[in-house]
Structures are given as structure tokens and as C-alpha cells.
Amino acid sequence: MKAAEIFEVCHARYRNLREWLADANGSVRSLDLDKPSEGYQWRPDRARACEYIADFERIGRQALRRPEWKGRLKLFNIYFLPSIEYRRAIPLVGVSEGIFDYWYQQVKRTLGAEFSRTGLYPPWQYFHSSNHKLGTWCRNDMTSRSGL
């Protein structure tokens, strides 16, 4: 699978989990009784979903932290995280449409490769792994920094 496709899979899971968590925080959706039920949809436990969202954002920001990629990081923070509409995001990033599209492709390729390398992809493995290496890395990293 190509890195850009890996990014799209991870980003879709990120968006779905953010929406699901927002709905779980007291939002009540109306039902359309004429529309059939979507059936059972698997969801991770709330804590694990929050971990995935945090890992997605942290890994993305860390992979784009190079000083010469400041604009690409801005694109990630403006366009991909809150899922702002394409036409509205271009002036917020502050570049032309052509450069925005070029950076868009670079961000997807770079982050797709990074998500694959760090274990965020494939999402099913992230959620079904009993020994979650990202969470373990975070806990170990925090423990070593605090001197415990």
C-alpha cells in the first residue's frame, strides 16, 4: 500500500473517532425512522480512541517539525486536524492553490510512511494489540524523563 493511502486510512479513522467522541459527549442526534439502521459498528473503548487521536496528532506534528516545513505543519494543523473545507483552508495556510496541493501530497506521503513505521497503521492492529507499542513508548518515555 502506498504511503498516501496509508495516511488516508489513518485520517479517516481519526475523523470518525473524533466525531464519535464528540457525539458521546452529550450530543443527541435525531433518528430518521424511514432510513434503515446501519447495524452494529465496532468502536474501541473511549480511552483507546482518545489515545489514537492523540497519537495521530502527535506523530503528525513530530514528523513535520522540520524548520523548512513550517508551512506543511500549518497545513496539517489547519486542514487535516479540524477538517476544514479545501477552499477555506487555502487562504488560512497563506499559499497559492498550487503550492497548497503540492504540500498536501507531501504531507500525505510523509505522514503515511511515518504512521506505518510507528504502528498507527493498520488501525485494526493498533486497537487489537494487547501490547500497544505507541502507548508503551509514551509511558516509557515519560518515565525516563521524570527520573522514575
Distance between the termini: 40 Å
Structural class: mainly alpha
Order of helices and strands: HHHHHHH
Radius of gyration: 17 Å
Describe the structure in your own words.
With 148 residues, this protein is an all-alpha fold. It has one domain (3-24, 44-132). It is 68% helix and 0% strand. It is built from seven helices and no strands. The chain has helices spanning 3-24, 46-63, 70-80, 86-93, 97-118, 123-128, 133-146. Helix 1 packs across helix 2 and helix 1 packs across helix 5. It is globular. It starts with a helix and ends with a helix. The model is unreliable at 135-148 (pLDDT under 50).
Key words describing this protein structure:
68% helix; disordered C terminus; globular; mainly alpha
Strand and helix map with partners:
Layout lengths: L2 H22 L21 H18 L6 H11 L5 H8 L3 H22 L4 H6 L4 H14 L2
Quick overview of this protein structure:
With 148 residues, this protein is mainly α.
